[in-house]
Amino acid sequence: MEKDKKYITNIVKSYVRYLKLERNYSPNTLAAYQHDLKYLMDFLEEQKMSLLEVKLEDMDTFVAWLHDKAVGARSQARILSGIRSFYGFLVKDGYLKDDPTELLASPHIGEHLPEYLSTEEVDALEASIDLSKPEGQRNKAIIEVLFSCGLRVSELVNLQYSNLFIEEKFLRVIGKGKKERLVPISDKAIRELELWAYDRNKLKIKPGEESYVFLNRRGHHLTRVMVLIMIKQQAKLAGIKKTISPHTLRHSFATALLKGGADLRSIQAMLGHESIGTTEIYTHLEISDLRREILEHHPRNINYKKHHPKVSMNKICNF
Asked: Which domain holds residue 293?
């Protein structure tokens, strides 16, 4: 039994090494894949099954097991995507002849439109910052860069001065899979960065941290969690009721571009999406807003609402 466990552990290590070296995945992505794979390992241990003897019907049981564990449909789909990748690796490397996940159906996921902020809400977020505090200008620069450039939070915390091309008004972003892309930066974001640089120069920066744009008060570069906490706190101070995160500002960036007339291919390039399908979610946001505008302002609907006051436009818009 111990010998089998050691064998499986070595297979998983080989898989993680494959993701790291051949697929060039980031540490965060590797951790996510390993976390999702643990669900399968727990299931197999509970069912007293061998990893290399799993059949399609066992995978169906695994999906039911996830459901019983109160894992939502979206999380199930993500986990199964990782499991498919894992079994694809096992076939590719000769551990298995057939892939038990090949015909496995994914759970149905309803369309989910991401939360986003209007430009006015972003302004309110920035206005809520106390600039008299040492970290005030830094936080304002962070919010402006996230909104103006559409960066992922991992891209923001790893942003270095060698990636700033201020005169050309571009940032070089190192995205998923260490792929590089160039993103325009607005004059306002540049101004906020310049003001932050003035405060940054007063810090005692730790050795090895000198190249990072955003630092904490102890001279270390920020973490994703630090940025998340800061944005949630500022949203509360700004009176924004929406549940937001750094990623909300990325959605806000893309939505603002689409509303301003930018084409999807340009937005795809700036966001660093591999597939245009990922970017197309923002067309649903625009259509949703357009539908609301029509329902609230078209004369037919206005007149109908006058004679049928119990009809809620919000309910109609969210139908």
From this structure: 282-317
